[in-house]
Write a structure and sequence with these properties.
A three-stranded antiparallel beta sheet has the order 1-3-2. The longest helix is centred in the C-terminal third of the chain and has 25 residues, at 201-225. 68% of the residues lie in helices and 3% in strands. It folds into two domains: 13-79, Arc Repressor Mutant, subunit A, CATH 1.10.10; 85-225, Up-down Bundle (Four Helix Bundle (Hemerythrin (Met), subunit A)). The chain is an all-alpha fold. The chain has helices at residues 12-28, 40-47, 51-63, 85-106, 112-130, 134-149, 155-172, 176-179, 186-198, 201-225; strands at 37-38, 68-69, 78-79. It is globular, with a radius of gyration of 19 Å.
Length: 229
């Protein structure tokens, strides 16, 4: 019988990086809400891996100030922070400054094929709302924005944008019940895509900025009305 070919072991970094990427994606897409506990065992079970890479991923996110360290009773877990209005406003100011610039820088690289993919995300956002699948809406909303920003070819700018999203995306979910079902900001997304198709830098920047500023104003007002725990 022919012996089994020797398989190369997976790099140790694969599980560590995979756990970190999975948690980042959940945060970026708004699948983790403010105040939600991150229990290491639960995450490890969902990912089908041991506790060690999950603990490492959580510690990295705590060091990046994306998560807050949990109590001893959480077994080394963490909590998704609820930002106050001032913290949220600062992060959205970062987004309002950088994302329009990234969208404008994307224009020279916005091929018809790339724009068609961005439009697919836009259409899926609407279907997510129509079908009451808000988690799908959030995933497609993230895909729409980063489909644009990925074209800017400015990795440092993109890294800063991602950092701001990581910290503010969970708080953005507070507006789900009131604003997303009515697609309050959907026209800004349509205008951004049309600006990209037309090669109109001013229109693209204005639409992206209006989307961010509208969300900032709505959610800051909500945070200021709500008592802190």
């Amino acid at each position: 019988m022919k012996p089994l070919a020797r398989l190369l072991p997976l790099p140790r970094s694969t599980l560590w990086d995979g756990a970190y990427a999975s948690l980042r994606a959940a945060l970026m897409e708004g699948r983790l809400a403010p105040g939600q506990r991150i229990v290491l065992r639960d995450i490890a079970d969902q990912l089908g891996i041991s506790l060690t890479p999950v603990r490492d991923a959580v510690n990295r996110l705590i060091a990046e100030r994306v998560l807050e360290r949990g109590s001893v009773g959480q077994g080394g877990g963490a909590t998704v922070p609820l930002l106050d209005a001032d913290q949220f406003r600062q992060l959205m100011t970062v987004r309002s400054g950088l994302e329009p610039a990234a969208a404008v820088a994307a224009l020279p690289h916005a091929t018809p094929a790339a724009l068609d993919e961005i439009e697919q995300a836009l259409q899926a956002m609407k279907r997510g709302v129509d079908e009451h699948q808000l988690e799908r809406y959030l995933a497609e909303h993230h895909r729409f924005h980063f489909g644009i920003y990925a074209l800017c070819r400015m990795p440092i700018v993109l890294e800063v944008i991602e950092s701001a999203w990581l910290r503010c995306a969970p708080t953005l979910t507070l507006a789900l019940p009131e604003y997303i079902p009515g697609l309050r900001r959907y026209p800004f997304h349509i205008a951004a895509l049309q600006g990209l198709r037309d090669g109109d830098a001013a229109a693209v920047a204005q639409a992206i900025r209006a989307d961010i500023d509208s969300a900032r104003d709505d959610i800051c007002a909500l945070l200021e009305r709500s008592p802190r725990p």
